[in-house]
Amino acid sequence: MAKPKLFGISGSLRADSCNSKLIREAARLFGDCSFAEADLRFSLYDGDEEAASGVPENVKAVERQIAEADAVVISTTEYNKGPSGVLKNALDWISRCEGNCWAGKPVAVMSAAAGRAGGERAQLILRSFMVPFRPRILQGPEIHVANCSNAFDEQGQLKGEIYVKELGQLMQQLRAEIPA
Questions:
Q1: d(Cα 153, Cα 159) in Å, to the nearest integer?
Q2: pTM for the complete prediction?
Q3: Directed axis angle between helix 85-94 and helix 120-130, to 10°?
Q4: Is the peptide bond before 141 cis (omega within 30 degrees of 0)?
Q5: Does 3.40.50.360 match the CATH number of domain 5-177?
Q6: pLDDT of the chain along its 180 residues, tens only?
Q7: Residue extents of the structural domains in the chain
């Protein structure tokens, strides 16, 4: 049997992003899998650009990766009480691709942020952004990594027994959602 394909989407572009670390930790705790990460360096969505040139190739590439994945993990930071513009822009562009790569796809949503709530509001809003796509979003445990700049060790692994335990449980649930 082939390894499950897990695809990670981080709502942050920073090289040392806590959300990128979190999706990598999710993949590690998911266990034996093929893991790839999205590159969300898309132009800002512009209907005129789409009309003139179509959906950009880098957007189509991420859409294909989502479609080919057995499951997806998304982690968002929180900017001004909501998800990052990078993530919202990516979802807007991907929605312009033909078909619906998200339909029925098992998705785990999480967040990491500097504040004490760990991006809880951004995660709630992200979940609502996903509704039109009709994925199978897991309901819990909810992962909100607070004070995220201090939540990972030098190797990028999560510190904190509760975070590791709950992320491991979420990844077990995600694995169980993949059809055999």
A1: 6
A2: 0.95
A3: 10
A4: yes
A5: yes
A6: 689 999 999 999 998 899 999 999 999 999 999 999 999 999 999 999 999 999 999 999 999 999 999 999 999 999 999 999 999 999 999 999 999 999 999 999 999 999 888 889 999 999 999 999 999 999 988 999 999 999 999 999 999 899 999 999 999 999 999 987
A7: 5-177
